Amino acid sequence: MKQFLITSLLLISLTAFSQRVYDKIGKFGKYHKDWALVEHNGYYGFLNINGDEVVPPIYSKIHPYNKDKKNWALVEKDGYYGYIDNAGRTVVKPIYSKIHQFGKLRKDWALVERDGLYGFITSEGAEVVKPKYDKIFAYGTIKKDWALVSKDGSYGAIDNMGAEIVKPKYDNIDKFGTLKEDWALVVKDGLYGFIYITGVEIFQPKYDKISPFSELHKDWALVSKDGHLGFINNKGIEVVSPKYDRIEAYGEYQKNWALVSKDGYYGFLGNNGNEIVKVKYDSIDPFDEYIKGWAMTSLDGKYGFITSDGIEIIKPKYDRIIKKNGVKGLINGHWDKIKKRK
Q: Distance of CA 172 to CAs 167, 190, 209, 218, Å?
């Protein structure tokens, strides 16, 4: 009975001293050492042991300290959330519809939500990323220190300082290094391109497909567009525009050459991507089958030869070429002996 009277007198004196009439005063130390939760007109705040109102009763709810973050208490006001620190100061204004766990997506940051959009606050309470994204993924998903973000169905990325390093404009962003180190494949409107680790777009998305590098030529990747094939290199240059129906691997027919075809005709690309043999033949046989360093060509039913230098040494003029007691070509009903020219 004596203890009850002492407590009651203490609460009465605190209420009087604070110059505000409280509907309820909670137990000291329950939420914070030497503080008591107070209620006034359905809102909550805190009094200290000296009767000072350290947190005015303006919150619809105050959660226990240290639950989400050390020395911070989650507060609610008009359906929005924020934080106060252990001195009663507002460190995060109650402007968010939800505040997620600190450190879940990035160390020392918490995902925040407002109006269905997401951003980040730091462990100091600063809003480092405004809530403007439909979704923010965990850091490190596509690149260390980057987080994939989405907005209006498109994807971009923010760095570990919260800066938007890639604007959300892609349908998809692959993990960096999948096809080439420091590059990430991006997709937009069903077309493919590349971005660099700085966020710069190396190749705008314009290709229907991009194959792995060095499959047909070292440091080059085969690309296709509108059913045609070409090459890009690892320096960000389109070395062969997509215009061929077929491209064979370099070295299959001739060292540093690739057989190409277009509209049913064949030729060769050199090692720099230029046409070393124009695409104009119906067929090109392997080199050295008839004469060393030469390859037989055909056009409109006639046969000739090109050299390993890309020179048309004999235009397609023979009706038939045979290898019997040397190499012979049939022309106008006569057999010509074909010899390698010096």
A: 12, 9, 14, 27
User: Beta-carbon neighbour count of residue 85 at 10 Å?
Assistant: 16
Domains of the chain by residue range: 134-207, 209-281, 287-342
Specify whether domain 134-207 bears CATH 2.30.30: no
Half-sphere exposure of 237 (CA within 13 A, CB side): 6
- DSSP label at residue 255: T
From first to last of its 342 residues, what are the pLDDT tens digits of the chain?
Answer: 433 333 444 444 444 444 678 999 999 999 888 999 999 999 999 999 999 999 999 999 999 999 989 999 999 999 999 999 999 999 999 999 999 999 999 999 999 999 999 999 999 999 999 999 999 999 999 999 999 999 999 999 999 999 999 999 999 999 999 999 999 999 999 999 999 999 999 999 999 999 999 999 999 999 999 999 999 999 999 999 999 999 999 999 999 999 999 999 999 999 999 999 999 999 999 999 999 999 999 999 999 999 999 999 999 999 999 988 889 888 888 998 988 765
* Residues 53/20, Cβ–Cβ less than 8 Å: yes
Kindly state the helix (H) or strand (E) to which residue 39 belongs, with its residue range.
strand 35-40
Burial of 236-255, coded b for 16+ CB within 10 Å and e otherwise, reads: eeebbebebeebbebeebbe
Contact 80/96 with Cβ under 8 angstroms?
yes
Helix (H, G, I), strand (E, B) or coil at 326: coil
**Model confidence, pTM:** 0.83
Cα(58)–Cα(47) distance, integer angstroms: 13
- Could you tell me if 337 and 323 are in contact, meaning their C-beta atoms sit under 8 angstroms apart? no
